[in-house]
Amino acid sequence: MSNSTGGQPTLEEVAARAGVGRGTVSRVVNGSPQVSERTRVRVMRAVDELGYVPNMAARALVTRRTGAIALVISEPEERIFGEPFFAGVVRGITTVVGDASRQLVLALAQTREQVDRLDTYLTPQHVDGVLMLSAHDSDTLPSRIQGRGLPIVLCGRPGQFAGMSYVDVDNTGGARDAVTHLVSGGRGAVALIAGPQDMIAGRDRLDGYRDALRAAGREVEDSLVEVGDFSEASGAAAMRTLLDRRPDIDAVFAASDLMALGALRVLREAGLKVPTDVALVGFDDGPLAAVSDPPLTTVHQPMEQLGREMATMLLAQISSGGVAAPEHLVLDASLVERASS
Prior knowledge:
The chain is α/β, with parallel strands linked by helices and 341 residues long. Helices cover 44% and strands 16% of the residues.
């Protein structure tokens, strides 16, 4: 790398090396289509030869874009980095964001302090848009982000956040298929370990459970329902409570694979065999489902596709200048039958 001053190459030096005007170089480095391919190649060759690095702050002032997208997750770190669902969705998001040459900024919104810091940071001066996972009913960030004119896409139907774009999975239909499978197998007392009821996914999977029982002409019994938080520990605790309350349980639908695996451990400790004594179905179809003992029947949700669709939707909204109408996409969920049921 060489230039006249021996310091960081300037836009003017790139222009001189390429034999074009300063404005032409600016258009090329900012991705403007109003430049011929021949000129673009000549400018980029000069950029490479001089080692020119664009001033991102100046670029942001011109383009009104930061090049950054925030991914906000309202869960504790141990869940974000330990559960397959988050890993799958984040993989899908990073694929699309990387292909678009954007920077992904991970932001945790679990504690009050974290939310307050994010409330200050999530502005058009710092990011071009926001993706949000695991929104709870008590979350106030989505509405405030939307009020600032930032494009936002939620993972899951927005519930109380009306007028926002989202990508979701057919949680109700998937849960309905899981419980119908258990009922069709001749199981009498079908229990549910539900997800958190302050999240739309938790409520939708509870609705699917109820729908399937009613369609089979069965009563929905509160004594057969216990609520967890999608974690393995909560699944184990819920299973213990259910067995104490209803020893006649012969089937369990857990609203996540991790809760199902927690339930499996407790059933084994109680001397019950799966599926001989108790059939078991989960929800997610993450990597652990196929290698559990026995392999877990579960509802498959396309986690990576979920992330890809979220990121694609957000990028389209950013390109529209934030004037696009809210979009809604619901992906199919399908039952994967294995030995646990």
